[in-house]
Amino acid sequence: MLDQLAQGRAGARTIEDGEVCDLVVIGAGVAGLNALYAATAYLPKGARVALIDQKDAPGGMWNTAYDFVRLHQPHPMFTVGDMRWNWKKPRDYLAARDEVQAHLASALTPVAKKVDLRTGFGQTVIRCDEVQTNDGHMAEVDFHPNGQDAQITSIRARRVIHAAGLNYAEAKPLVLSSNQVTSIIPQELRSTLAAHPAAPVVVVGGGKTGMDTVLAALAAGGGRQVSLVLGRGTNFLNRTKYLPTGLGRWTSGELVSRLFRDLALSFDGDNDAEVIDRFRRNHATDTTTENGVFLFGLQSESELAQIKAGVAEMHADYLDDVVDTDDGPQMVLRSGARQPLAPGAIIVNCTGSFFRAETLAEPMPLLSAGDTVLGINARHGFHFLTSVAAFFATHLLYRGQLRGQGFYTLDHEALFRADRNAWVGATAAQAYMNQVIAVQTLPMMLLDRCGLDLDRWYPLPRRMAGLWKMKASATADIAHCRAVLDRVAERFDIAAAPLR
Q: How would you classify the pairing of strands 234-238 and 226-229?
């Protein structure tokens, strides 16, 4: 960790009270780092830039994620701007937590060579407001060291990018009535398995965290029983099919942008269940199940096979409690069914961390009235992937092309809490429409610098053919997506509107 901290802070100074900066970036996760990286293309050499984050190192959630987490996608498509990974690994390698954190931290080194970078890690931002000054609109930012409310530092900036990201809250162990089971979160899995080598494991949650945890528990060996309580069940995009390896990159698969178009055009604003069913039949790893949810996760066919072969029991239900009876502990499922458990069973809460806070995050506009504060967040989101939102919105802001182009913002968090499947259809429509408008607005050279684009998995001729198709149907596709988002806004009474 000390090496990573040193790498993340290379060439950077601390932030002084009263400083006036050209740019302040709040948040050093993948969104904030992409925004910072993009902004350096427009800032003069030596511009004064401050980076502030509540964590002690760059990398956002990758600093606290469970230690067995791996990327969904091949590592080249998870980066900052177009920055290459500093290693020689197979293209399809899925980087692990510490590898991802180190890569994100290393993004500050090239930034510090271009601008006068000042960093404030372990800091809590308490205010970020646009103000009118004699020199025009500026932004004021107040922050203090975590837990030291009285030590406030105040700075001003010509621009602030507030990369709040998603409303993330680290999961907590489930509160259960039984005294005969151990309730944990994934971050505690490996140490708990080592301390209880024969204990069965019950994974609660059918999303990516749940699948990761099942595979980690099976990989730990010892012949322990692993069970899964998966709720409605989660569909995953078939990584084997859509990100093929070898010659398959030329001959098989399909651009992920075309998948988004398929989802966007199949959604009319009301037919949520039909869209999920269409996705499962055409694009998922397991096309034969009744899984009822899709959260944009990827899974390979081999991972699915390992899970099916290794899991002793799967319950398409929700866990309400574990209670002690004369016959031992029992799971109480929402359907009313009960399932016996062996004493000492390990219950792992894998129900997710995004949009799990008790209340909605405070609304933050994508762009302040004076174009001074750019907000990368989920309440007025530009894209459901805040990394992608940060890359494109920053470039568009500095080029003066963010307003008036037809880009839509969407209240992702409110919609997700209201209806997850409507969220899938709406986010696909928004993501695809904003991508099409970006293609019409930005130069090709800049578009090709977005390393986050999963289409980059495919050779250039296939990408160019996909781009031609996108442009050919752009007018009709944009009109459809706008109608969908307007319908979703009306149906759920949420914010979804063009940025004017």
A: unpaired
Q: How far apart are CA 355 and CA 376, in angstroms?
A: 15
By CB atoms closer than 10 A (0-12, 13-18, 19+), residue 178 is buried
- Look at residue 442 and tell me whether its pLDDT is greater than 70: yes
Structure tokens at 87: 């290693």
- Check residue 1 and give its pLDDT: 37
Dihedral (CA of 362, 430, 65, 28) sign: negative
Residue 414 structure tokens:
């409110």
| Three-class SS of 417-465 | HHCHHHHHHHHHHHHHHHHHHHHHHCCHHHHCCCCCCHHHHCCHHHHHH
User: What 3-state class would DSSP assign to 335?
Assistant: coil
pLDDT at residue 167, as a whole number: 66
pLDDT at 12 (0 to 100): 64
Q: What is the pLDDT of residue 422?
A: 97
Please say whether the dihedral angle defined by the alpha carbons of residues 369, 371, 372 and 375, taken in this order, is positive or negative. positive
Would you place residue 2 in the very low, low, confident or very high pLDDT band (cuts 50, 70, 90)? very low
CB within 8 Å of 325: residues ≥ 6 apart: none
List, as one string, the DSSP characters of 187-248: GGHHHHHHHSTT--EEEE--SHHHHHHHHHHHHT-TT--EEEE-TT-EEEEEHHHHS--TTH
Q: Give the three-class secondary structure for 260.
A: helix
Tokens of 424: 């899938």
The pLDDT-based confidence of 90 (bands split at 50, 70, 90) is very high
For residue 469, the SS3 value is helix
pLDDT digits (tens, 9 = 90+) for 219-255: 998 889 999 999 999 999 999 999 999 999 999 999 9
Average confidence score pLDDT of the chain: 94
Nearest CA to 213 among 231, 187, 233?
187
Q: Which residue has the tokens 């390698």?
A: 93
Cα separation, 28 vs 115, in Å, equals 16
Strands (E), 285-390: 293-299, 313-315, 319-325, 328-333, 338-340, 346-349, 373-377
Which residue shows structure tokens 């500093």?
A: 86
Beta-carbon contacts of residue 338 (< 8 Å; ≥ 6 apart):
330, 331, 332
Q: Which two tokens stand for residue 496?
A: 């979804």
Specify the 3-state DSSP secondary structure of 10. Answer: coil
Percent pLDDT > 70 in the chain is: 97
pLDDT band at 107 (very low <50, low <70, confident <90, very high): very high
